Amino acid sequence: MDADFAIVGGGIVGLSVAWGLLRAGQSVVVVDGADDALRASRGNFGLIWVQGKGLNAPHYARWSRRSAALWGDFAQELEDNTGLDLALRQEGGLDLHFSDGSLADCATRYAALRAELGGDYPFEVLTGAALMREEPGIGPKVAGAVLHPEDGHANPLMLLRALSEDVRRLGGRLETGRMVSQLLPPGEGFALGCADGTVFHAGRVVLAAGLGAAALGPQLGFAAPVTPERGQVLITEKLPPLIRRPSLIARQVGEGAVQIGATNERAGLDDRSTRKGMAQLAAEAVAAYPALAQAQLVRSWGALRVMSPDGLPIYQESEAVPGAFLITCHSGITLAAAHARLMPNWILGRDGAPDLEVFGEARFAV
């Protein structure tokens, strides 16, 4: 047996779970594909984002907030262990609106969610001078914004690197360049067959392979109804301070570059950036922050989100093959702290485990 657990997928979701299981005393091997695999972890927007999550699903709002609240200690532990700066800034985020009607509708929906959550859902509607005080670089086309104090952002590549380094420090094995093609339960434990002929054996398996779960999941009794959604991103040159708080339109990183994003496109497995997508992003960014009209763009990319039918995470232990777990979501950054700190107790069936039944696949059969 190579390990107590084999994690299929070495992105932020898989590594967060692996890190948590190692801290819980389990031995872990993480089996990850080649560098040319479709990787959401290397192309995402880096937001720790609560607002907007769970407007029609309060349990998702609670789960997102729970993870956001854990992020500070989670990041500090990784930074202490690795010496890497995750560039965490969690001082609130802005949801920008270009019309009074859109802003009012959003505020009404947030108020309804607050009532559903028993009054515990902080947000503030900013218009006019109040918005300009919070965000002096905002343009006149912006009617207002919703400020949520629990939102923030971090460097997703540094998070990925820190998790990788700390998983190794804790004794985990990272097997990269191994594309898992078969997941077989040979009596006791599982055998993971890779395309290059390598086989790994583990007592239990966690499928955190993103879009790869669609093909691998049915081998373990999962429906794994995940599909791709393309998001394109633009990066500017390094600029003087312009954006204080992140929004869904843009965020300014520590060294000064502004990250602009992201599109929501159904384009199959095509992760290329397109002229149409870049033009859309640039126009919206300039409308929100007029000073960006003078900024030089230095690069762009596209990446594929991992989407379930309702956009919520899927957490499921296989009924057909006990000991096999499916963990997938499109909010890998926001939920990283929960996956690292809370998910291991759920997987191991220990006291204090979160109740995640509502995120199971049974909801898709209704």
Structure characteristics:
D-Amino Acid Oxidase, Chain A, domain 2; 29% helix; 4-stranded antiparallel sheet; FAD/NAD(P)-binding domain; 3 domains; alpha+beta; 366 residues
User: What number of domains?
Assistant: 3
- Low-pLDDT segments, ≥5 res: none
How many alpha or pi helices?
A: 9
Summing up helix and strand content along with how strands pair, one would put the structural category as alpha+beta
Topology of this protein?
Blueprint: E1 3-8, H1 12-23, E2 28-31, E3 47-48, H2 58-82, E4 93-97, H3 100-116, E5 124-126, H4 128-134, E6 144-148, E7 152-153, H5 156-169, E8 173-175, E9 180-184, E10 190-194, E11 199-207, H6 213-216, E12 227-238, E13 250-252, E14 257-261, H7 275-288, E15 297-307, E16 314-317, E17 324-328, H8 336-341, H9 343-348
Parallel strand pairs: 1-2, 1-11, 2-8, 11-17
Antiparallel strand pairs: 3-7, 4-6, 5-6, 9-10, 10-11, 12-14, 12-15, 13-14, 16-17
Helix pairs in contact: 1-5, 2-5
